[in-house]
Amino acid sequence: MTTVSSEAAARAVIEVKDKIELNEVEKQIFDRLVNTLRHFNLNTELRVAGGWVRDKLLGKECYDIDIAIDNMLGSEFVDKVREYLLSTGEEAHGVGVIPRNPDQSKHLETARMRLLDLWIDFVNLRSEDYSENSRIPTMTFGTAKEDAYRRDLTINSLFYNINTGSVEDLTGRGIKDLKSGKIVTPLPPKDTFLDDPLRVLRAIRFGARFGFVLEEELTEAAACDDVKNALKAKISKERIGTEVIFIPYTVLLGNSYSLLALFLSVLVQIDLMISGNQPVKAMTYIADLTLFWVVFNLHPKVEPTVSEECQGLCVAYLDAAWNLIHLIGGSSFTGEQRRLCLYAALFLPFRNTIYKDEKGKKVPVVNYIFRDSLKQKASDPETVIKIHRSLEKFLTLIPLLTSNDDTQPAEVDMGMELFDVPITSKLRVATGFLLREVKEFWRVGLLISTMLYPSDVDSTQDFLEKKFELDRRKDLFKAAEDAIVNLGLEKVWDLKPLVNGKDIMTVLQLKSGGPVVKEWQQKLFAWQFAHPAGTVEECLDWMKETHLKRAKME
């Protein structure tokens, strides 16, 4: 495990503030909460828990405020806050309760309300015990110290006591580990991970996000067979991909309110790693801890067989794509395009790997990883597979798009017939059809294809050795991108057909649609790509003329 912790000796001390400085909104929120205590003469301590405390000590703003209460349920205190606010003439918004639901990994009742345009969660301090064969804990009221020790990491175990305005480090090492940049569990890591194996992924995510070092004992525990088996068996794969919580929304009706339960996927462990500021480091941790095939589980019968060592190539492609995105300029890609670009790069070695479903149909294994291993939304595998399928066509077009020679080849092999297209327009037509396939992800397809260019050279070993040739690939991308933009194809998928299906049926004298109409729609789009200034009349004339010619030949 030395790969994961080798940075420790060279790390500088992290700058951590001595005290938390509240902004004006936080001051007003906490004043309302303290005033509620005074209004009802409550002997209650309120603490902000977890990430907000950590981020504020690091000098970062955080809008995720979780309040831990020492002697009542969150719902009871929220009712008091609502009552106090109404007594002052201020309306309470979004008040609601998320009931305890162990079957959906929701082990504790949580109340939520909106104060000054911020959602605030309220929950009681708790202690948990896990049974040997269940990751659903027995939950009881606990002390602040018990609550701190049951948390995943020491840096997430800190409290900000609203009553006293002070930071509480009840594990005795939260501040220390924050300053030294270490990822450590409050309790022995193996016990912590066996209680909840998801904490392994959280440790990796926070380590990558902050550039912190995973403690050696933690890495040994994370990589041990007991924890890996627990990660496979105890956690549903749906929770690895997405931790689901309920977001309540309340419609106030006089003094009563009804709860509308909304579902929001949050703390998406793998997705947050990929979308975060250090995706390569996160995936490297996963690979180094021998968790890659636990997280990205493949179908048991894939064709061709995937070797265990393939994980190194997956991370290498991700590394190259991440660096290439930054070299090209992040503004060239939206957040969603960047996210799926990184997934497409990570799973690039699987682009030609398939499995057969129960009906014997061949399915890309990328589909299995997304839907069965990660339980991600259906559109993600569809887009990544579409990007992978576009690569061979991009590889065919790149030398033509980047050529300084204005003379175009007589044929462009795109796996489709280019109907009656002038030689000088074939490149524009072929590129237009390709961009219509991948739509707004065409730059992603182009970027990934530059990593495989030229296609007749096997650069696998170069990627494994991090010989990415990023400058050459950036220049290749820019040249092809400029050519596509100069061809006027940047948003070609928005192009409306000049001739609709009904007109096609009229010209062909058809009573109903079908394959023939679909074929002509393709022909007419090819004509539009070849004649960007063409009119409806010219397009119809060409269609009638072409149809008559073919009818005579038949």
TrEMBL record:
<keyword id="KW-0808">Transferase</keyword>
<comment type="similarity">
    <text>Belongs to the tRNA nucleotidyltransferase/poly(A) polymerase family.</text>
</comment>
<keyword id="KW-0694">RNA-binding</keyword>
<dbReference type="InterPro" id="IPR002646">
    <property type="entry name" value="PolA_pol_head_dom"/>
</dbReference>
<dbReference type="GO" id="GO:0005739">
    <property type="term" value="C:mitochondrion"/>
</dbReference>
<dbReference type="GO" id="GO:0052927">
    <property type="term" value="F:CC tRNA cytidylyltransferase activity"/>
</dbReference>
<feature type="domain" description="Poly A polymerase head">
    <location>
        <begin position="46"/>
        <end position="183"/>
    </location>
</feature>
<dbReference type="GO" id="GO:0003723">
    <property type="term" value="F:RNA binding"/>
</dbReference>
<protein>
    <recommendedName>
        <fullName>Poly A polymerase head domain-containing protein</fullName>
    </recommendedName>
</protein>
<dbReference type="GO" id="GO:0001680">
    <property type="term" value="P:tRNA 3'-terminal CCA addition"/>
</dbReference>
<dbReference type="GO" id="GO:0052929">
    <property type="term" value="F:ATP:3'-cytidine-cytidine-tRNA adenylyltransferase activity"/>
</dbReference>
<dbReference type="Pfam" id="PF01743">
    <property type="entry name" value="PolyA_pol"/>
</dbReference>
